[in-house]
Write a structure and sequence with these properties.
It is a single chain. With 40 residues, this protein is mainly α. The longest helix is centred in the middle third of the chain and has 32 residues. The relative contact order is 0.09.
Length: 40
């Protein structure tokens, strides 16, 4: 069970990087909305 599957590891890394990209994009959108509303 403890044997690592390289394909699984790669998909984990890929999912993690896409999550980060999504979070960055989402935070930028949120910042734009806050700027429009006037919330600092």
């Amino acid at each position: 069970m403890s044997r690592r599957d390289p394909h699984l590891e790669n998909s984990k890394i890929y999912n993690h990087s896409t999550l980060i990209k999504f979070a960055v994009k989402f935070s930028k959108i949120g910042k734009n909305i806050q700027d429009k509303i006037g919330v600092v």
